[in-house]
Design goal:
The structure is a single chain. The longest helix is centred in the middle third of the chain and has 14 residues. Helix 3 packs parallel to helix 6, helix 4 crosses helix 6 and helix 6 runs parallel beside helix 7. The chain has eight helices and ten strands. 32% of the residues lie in helices and 29% in strands. It is globular, with a radius of gyration of 18 Å. The chain has one domain: Rossmann fold. Strands 6-7-8-3-9-10 form a six-stranded mixed β-sheet.
Length: 237
């Protein structure tokens, strides 16, 4: 692939996204560097979440959605063109994790929540699975709070704990890119700051794309800031 800078983790070229006959995103050309936090801001309804969903192909399940252009990700030390389907969808979603605005723990135990992606990936080594569960929960500063109730329902956790659990679940397969769609908007200030601190630590080995309306949050943690307006993407910081 020509004209790709070695520091670029995400490359978007001439991207257009349609839902039915409606053009949602128009002629977007952008590169996002690795090991950084890039924030995407802008008014509601402008396509921020849609833009984020492009990078793990969530839009692929929408019958009226179509995309043109190219999206290139640097994964496993090689460049992958998403729209040319150069990586199977399950493999892509192991490399590109995502957390959402509302915590979405599964109705099962804390341990099974974190191990679920490994089950989907066909990993069966119980010793390895237990090690990865503990490591992911330690990464999200949740281990000490839940280590004595791993078999209890994840639905009993507080809102902040649920979001950290979802983050642990996203991290257990060591994604290279983490997509965060308003990950703190449903949390109180204390819980939100914990998530922010986690993201700052994670960027040393993970590229983070963050959709956020919270301008103070963006100022605190983002390395670069882009705004979606009038269907296009503009760098503002």
């Amino acid at each position: 692939m020509n004209n790709i800078h070695t520091d670029d983790k995400v490359i978007v070229r001439k991207l257009q996204f349609y839902y039915g006959e409606n053009l949602i995103l128009k002629d977007i050309n952008v590169c996002f560097a690795g090991q950084s936090i890039t924030a995407i801001t802008g008014p509601s309804g402008q396509g921020k979440s849609t833009f984020l969903s492009l990078f793990n192909m969530l839009w692929n399940d929408l019958s009226l959605a179509r995309v043109s252009g190219d999206i290139i990700l640097h994964l496993d030390n090689r460049h992958i063109s998403l729209l040319k389907h150069e990586l199977p969808l399950p493999a892509l979603r192991r490399k590109v994790g995502m957390i959402f605005q509302e915590p979405n723990p599964l109705p099962m135990s804390i341990a099974r929540n974190v191990s679920f992606p490994m089950k989907l990936a066909g990993i069966q080594d119980k010793k390895y699975i237990n090690h990865k569960i503990k490591t992911a929960l330690q990464q999200t500063f949740l281990w000490e709070e839940v280590k004595d109730r791993m078999n209890k329902s994840a639905m009993e956790l507080s809102g902040g704990q649920k979001q950290r659990l979802c983050l642990a679940r996203a991290l257990v397969l060591e994604p290279e890119i983490l997509l965060c769609d308003e990950p703190t908007s449903s949390l109180d200030t204390t819980a939100a700051r914990v998530i922010e601190d986690l993201l700052l630590q994670l960027k040393t080995h993970c590229t983070i794309l963050l959709v956020s309306h919270n301008q103070n949050q963006v100022k605190r943690i983002a390395d670069r800031v882009f705004k979606i307006k009038n269907k296009n993407l503009f760098q503002i910081q």
